[in-house]
Design a protein that fits this description.
mainly alpha, Arc Repressor Mutant, subunit A, 2 domains, RNA_pol_sigma70_r2, RNA_pol_sigma-70-like, transcription, transcription regulation
């Protein structure tokens, strides 16, 4: 039986009654003090009040999932950092979805995938994006040039200013990462 990320997070949270009381008090006070402020901060960075609301909520969920809140000295600074990461993930997901839809629109034969198929492809692209984020920049670029643009190792090597054998190593490392997480 596999555990979900939520159950893994829950198991890493303290079970001591005093610690739980501290967590509850800290999170309730910080939510009351900073939620509106964070939402207004985010509103300046997104076009939609709903997006600002979603990112602010997700930021507090991530704060609540932290195992040790006693070390948090500047909660607003931490919330700002968390919210920026959540916001970048939102933008990255939207960029991937837009690129996929653009590729569909540019296809020779117009196709309209079902909403389920579209969701599955977008989720897969997000998963691949997360996998590739752990690679060095050149390895990521080499993999994408090879898989998306159909470039040869020599073409990629010329573009990146490395040898073809280095490109082979980059792509091998990226494929290994994909296979291990499949």
């Amino acid at each position: 039986m596999t555990s979900s990320p939520t159950s893994e997070r829950a198991s890493s949270l303290p079970s001591d009654a005093g610690e739980l009381a501290f967590r509850h008090d800290f999170l309730a006070a910080e939510f009351a003090r900073s939620y509106r402020w964070l939402r207004q901060y985010l509103r300046r960075h997104v076009n939609s009040p709903a997006d600002a609301e979603d990112v602010a909520s997700s930021s507090f969920v991530e704060l609540a999932a932290m195992p040790d809140l006693r070390g948090v000295r500047e909660p607003r600074a931490l919330l700002t950092t968390i919210s920026r990461r959540v916001l970048f993930d939102l933008w990255r997901r939207r960029d991937l979805e837009a690129a996929y839809l653009a590729a569909l629109a540019a296809a020779d034969e117009p196709t309209t995938p079902s909403p389920e198929a579209l969701l599955e492809v977008v989720q897969t692209l997000n998963h691949i994006d997360k996998l590739l984020r752990g690679l060095p920049k050149r390895a990521r670029q080499a993999f994408l040039y090879s898989q998306l643009d159909g470039m040869t190792y020599n073409e990629i090597a010329d573009l990146l200013g490395v040898s073809a054998s280095m490109v082979r190593k980059y792509i091998s490392k990226a494929l290994e990462k994909c296979y291990l997480c499949a």
